[in-house]
Amino acid sequence: MDITRIYIDREFSLGEILELTESSASHLFKALRKRIGDEIELFNGRGYSCNAVILDSLKNNQTAKVTSKPILHKKQGTEINVGMALIKNDPFSLAVQKSAELGVNSLTPLITERTQVRLKNIKENKIDRWNSIARGACEQCGENWVTGIKDPLNLLDWSNNLTSPLKLVLYPKSKKKITEVSIEGPVALAIGPAGDFSEEEILTLEERGFVPVSMGHRILRAETALISALSCIRTMTEEF
Question: In Å, what is the CA distance from 119 to each residue of 16, 19, 48?
Fold first, then answer.
């Protein structure tokens, strides 16, 4: 039986007693029907994990005792940093979840010409929610490095700060398929909104070293294009 994994935002050591968050405790006891004495796995999203056992409540807070020496897990797979135009909330939340499951290093929400959202209207609690979704996805899939959900940026600000040797932008009009690209190191991937990037934005990205690539003849929703492109990159690098 697979052990239940719980995210905890701190370092930990053998024998230490840690306080669990209210949401984690509720998930363990109400959703998973865990009991005092059950074993769980803790991870901090920065590569470390350990085994722990659930203890009695302490001052109405649930605690767990670390029962194994923390292990640092090396991050595996090609580094992928995604810039994705903001779309409707539910599809974007799905994109966050699948990015975490597919081992994306970072995901930056982008403001583009055709994005119907303004930076000033993006509240901090929404970013917190996206980070929570990423952590939950990593709890489920066994990934010990949580995808970082960055603060939203304008497309040009994001593209100016990239260091990846290979930069790709999904563009349906490109004659080059994503499978025709050679991947030998970290990748930056740009995905546009409904209606896609404008031609001016594509030209600007090309000036910054981006290679426009297509996903074939089908016009995909942004969240579908993201999942497809990430899976394609993982397959091309022989990780799948």
Answer: 42, 35, 34
């975490």: which residue's tokens?
Answer: 100
Longest pairwise C-alpha distance within the chain: 63
User: What is d(CA 134, CA 51) in angstroms, rounded to the nearest whole number?
Assistant: 21
Of the chain, the end-to-end C-alpha distance in Å amounts to: 24
Contact between 10 and 18 (Cβ < 8 Å) = yes
Which tens digit of pLDDT belongs to each residue from 46-94?
A: 999 999 999 976 555 789 999 999 999 999 999 999 999 999 889 999 9
Q: pTM above the 0.90 mark? A: yes
Task: Looking at the structure, tell me whether residues 94 and 162 fall in a common domain.
Answer: yes
Is there a single domain that holds both residue 229 and residue 184? yes
Kindly tell me the sign of the dihedral angle through the C-alpha atoms of 130, 136, 140, 145.
positive
Supply the range of the domain harboring residue 115: 80-236
Q: How many CB atoms lie within 10 A of CB 101?
A: 18
Please indicate, yes or no, whether residues 138 and 181 belong to a single structural domain of this protein: yes
If 0-12 CB within 10 Å is exposed, 13-18 middle and 19+ buried, where does residue 182 land? exposed
- List C-alpha distances in Å: 94 to 1, 58, 127, 222, 234: 27, 36, 14, 11, 19
pLDDT in tens, 156-168: 999 999 999 999 9
The tokens describing 137, both together, are 């996805």
Final residue of a structural domain among 44, 72, 100: 72
Which residues contact residue 90 at a Cβ distance below 8 angstroms, ignoring those fewer than 6 apart?
none
